[in-house]
Every structure is written in C-alpha cells, then in structure tokens.
Queue: 2 jobs
Job 1
Amino acid sequence: VTTIAILTAAGSGTRLGRDIPKALVEIDGVPLVTHAARRLAASGVVDSIVVTCPPGLASVVADVVARDALVGVPVRVVDGGATRQASVAAGLALAGPDDDVVLVHDAARPFASAALVRRVVSAVRDGHRAVVPGVPVVDTIKTVTDADLPPAPAPSGTGAMGAVVAEPVISTPQRAQLRAVQTPQGFDRALLERAHDAAAHRAVDAPATDDAGLVEALGERVVVVAGEDAALKVTTERDLVLATLYARQAEK
Ligand code: C5P
C-alpha cells in the first residue's frame, strides 16, 4: 500500500518560447519540475516519484531533481513519449507491486500544494478510484466546430482588417456544471493501468489531455474534489509571473 507519483515533464514547452524544456525553466532559481517534486514529497503521502523527461535529457533532469535534498523521497527519471499519454504510460510501467495508488501530476503545475496532494490521495484511499481536482469556471464556455470554414463574405466596410475567423457555436454547457480540472489526479493503480491499456489499443483522433478522460472512456466513475488557484498551469510567460506570485504568497 504505497503511492507513486508520475510527474510529467517531457513536454517541450514551445509556447513559453524558451530554448529549454518548460520543466527546467526556473522560478526563484528552482526548476518548475523541482518545485512540483518538492510539494509532492512534502505531502507526506507520496512514497516515490517517477519523472518523465524529454528523451535524451534523463541525466540532466535527474541531476536537477534527484539531487535536490528537499525532495527527500526516491526519484527516478524515465524518458517520456511523443504525447503526454505516452509519457504517463512510460511512468506507469515503473510502478511496483506495492503501489496501489498512482498520482499523475504535471511539472507544469509547480505550485500545486501539499494539501491538494493529500486531498486527492485521501479521496482515492476513501474508495474513489479516480479523483481529479477541479475549480468552477468563471467564463461561459462554448463548444465550437474546428472545421475548415469558407472565408466569410467580406461585408462592405471591413477595410484592411481582413476576414475575421468565425467559428460556429455548437452548444453552451451549463456553467454551474463545469469544472476546470487540474493535477495531481489520483487513481487506483489497476484502474489506471486498464485505462491506459485500453487507450493504447484504441484509434483516437487526438491523444488524451488528462488521465481521468481515459478512465471515463471505460465507463468508470471519476469524481472531482476541490482544486486550487495555486495549481495553475504554466503555459505562457504571463503564467510564470502569476505562478511566481503564488509561490511568494505560499512562502509568507
Ligand atoms: O503540453 P501540456 O502543457 O498539455 O503538457 C502537460 C504536461 O505534460 C507537462 O508537464 C508536460 O511536460 C507533460 N508532457 C509529457 N510528455 C509529452 C508532452 C507533455 O510529459 N510528450
């Protein structure tokens, strides 16, 4: 009965526009992947961590994470895959027979708190076999088609602005029912393995962007627990600034 955390850090982070992988970008002199690993370890409920890293960078990532004395739990590093889903599968392959709970966490969410990690693991240990943190959304969300559209006929008077990209709306889900989901996501290991096995054998248009989606595809129940602002995902330079603010706040 141990908990293993798979920390996905194999993305390139091209939207940040740096020449190093996003997980190695530093805030306050500490790489994002180390910030995330420290909080997983500080939760007291994670027994080991597997970091998925960009292929070829295993020794670099091992240097920055495994040698951080503050992490304090065993950290292994494995080459990730071409997609996040493949990276998680590579990490999952390293789970041991005693690991009955698996957390999957994005290094791109460096300030997800130890309290959030504990909340997710508690919910799994309480019998929820698939648990995701989520927060209510403030915007109204619409589903649109991404089909190629013929350029809209230019009404007179559009001037030099060119054609506006106009995506047809399909539907508007009830906002009160929506949650923006975060990581760490927590699972019963057997269920997550079954979900990944099934996904690997299924032809899909797009790879999964989270693991709970794979569990839902099995028709199994997934529950949402309260997420937090600090678990925001760092994608752009603006997010780095915001994440830094959260980090400073948390240290006060
Ligand atoms: O690209 P995105 O921001 O959705 O990535 C989410 C997380 O998945 C990041 O922590 C990233 O490092 C990780 N990832 C991965 N392997 C990939 C792509 C993304 O581990 N091939």
Job 2
Amino acid sequence: GRPSQPPSPKAATIPGVRHVIAVASGKGGVGKSTTACNLALALAANGQRVGILDADIYGPSLPKLFGLHGKPRVVSGRTLAPLEGFGVKVMSIGFLVEEETPMIWRGPMVMSAITQMLREVAWGELDVLVVDMPPGTGDAQLTMAQATPLAGAVIVSTPQDLALIDARRGVAMFRKTEVPILGIVENMSYFIAPDTGNRYDIFGHGGARKEAARLGVPFLGEVPLDMALRERSDTGRPIVATDPSSPHSLVYRDVARQV
Ligand code: ADP
C-alpha cells in the first residue's frame, strides 16, 4: 500500500487564539521587550483581546515590565492560568522560577519550555497573542517560529549599523520560515533633552527606515530614547497603560494599527 503521510511540518494553532505575532530583534538590549509590552497594551487599547508570552526564557522581563509577581494558578492537569496586567494576559517563565536562578538550559529543554508555555496555558479567547522572542536568530528562535503558525513578525532595532545587520538576519530567518514580516520599529531613534529641547541622535537616526525600504518591508515607527519611558518600564507601569496620551504611547498605538 501507499506509505502513510509524513507529519505536517507546520505545528498546530493554539485553540482560542486567532493571531500570534512575534516581536523579535537580532540582538539583546535594543528594546524588544519594551516594544512587545507596549505593543500588546496598544493592541488592547485599540479594543482587541490580547495576551503576551515571554519566550525570552534566558532573560524574562515581562514580570518586571508589567509589575506582576504572583505564581500562575494550575487550572487543570499541567495547564496554567496566565496572570493579568492592565487588561492583558501575561505568561512568563519568570513567574515560575526565582529571579536570581540562572537558567542554564540545553536546547531541547528550551524548546519544550517554549512549546509548553504556548500550549499549556489557559489563554482563553484572544484576538492576538504577542510573543516576546528570545534575542538573536538561533535554535530557540527557530523553534518558536515553527512552534505555531505566526501571523507575522515585528522586528525591533536601534539605528546603529551593528543592530541593523542583526535585524537583517532576523528578517532573513523569518522569511526562510515563511513568516510574514509586519515591519521594523526603530527604538532609541533620537533623544530630546528635556531641559533644552535640543535633539541628539545618540545612536544615529533613520537607519531602520532605510533598512526597511531596502528589504521591502513596512517601516512602523520611531520611538525616542526617553527617561520617563525607561522609568515606567522599570517600575512596572508601562507607558501605554499609565500615560496613554504621551507622544510615545501614540507611536505604539500607531504601530498597533499597522500590524
Ligand atoms: P531587549 O528586550 O531588546 O533586551 P529591553 O526592552 O529589555 O530590550 O530594553 C533594554 C533596556 O533599555 C531596558 O532597561 C529598557 O527600559 C531600556 N529601554 C528600551 N527602550 C527604551 C527607550 N525608548 N527609551 C529609554 N529606555 C529604553
């Protein structure tokens, strides 16, 4: 008889979740988690039912960004209930381990942790699940890009050449896995001195817009380097939720409308 069908290379969708959007960066420290957090809140502010998953399992920052500390409740078997912050459902490996515990995990453990956080969480009905990806373009990123059908990926970069080279690698990885690139956000795009109003392009400016044009993907917006944004992030009061009319929040709202 005929050989049986090979298993589908595409993994299953998550029940109840309509779209999964990845927020990624080629390297760490460019503001990927800050962007993921505020994008999720902006999507919620635009009227969507939103969840966010911290797939940055080596450096989970969502508990801090959302100001959440509790342990997720077990709802049945191994399934955990996400915590909730500012109307967004949040799941992070940071809820399950101590903050100081170093996570020295091998590849297969990383992969099973990511799939478990996608599938064994009672997300309920969501319009969008935002995934804060691990930085870079290695195995963990690839696992995530293939663990569930992604509606698209948002790439975060600073204007610096080095960050842009890494961002380009990120775009290439998603293209290879046939994930649509929703666009590029330039973070730390410029700085306005609060005392003088003078503008400084600390990491350069406009590099991401140029790179997006070169790659033929949308440019989604520029977020300045800003002390208030950083302070709010560090104290669990993300800017989109706690200062919705600030110019930065409007940029995130605008990005949310485009994805
Ligand atoms: P990543 O997820 O890429 O590692 P984070 O979002 O954790 O980056 O940001 C790294 C640090 O930079 C954090 O302390 C964060 O608060 C800060 N940061 C990110 N974006 C901005 C910004 N636009 N203005 C000021 N500080 C920022």
